[in-house]
What we know:
Blueprint: H1 10-30, H2 43-46, H3 49-71, H4 75-88
Amino acid sequence: MKNEQFGFNKKNYKLLFIGLFVNVFGFLLMIGGGAEQLSEFNADELFSFRRITLAPIFIIIGYVIIAVSIMKKPKEFSNQEIENSKKVK
């Protein structure tokens, strides 16, 4: 029977939740800008710096943090894997 471990540790989960928070924050920054009536159009509110530039930056940063949290290998797992490979040889 192999000694298998789950690839995520506490640090990976922290990074994952930080990335999710940053991602949700970016989407929350995009909310709004709609008109109350169909005959109204407020371009300054709809095409503001916050919605066009700032929010997508937060969303991309959030996705990068999530990807890093998934790809990051825990140090304990790496050390155990090295020890196991030495025992096999």
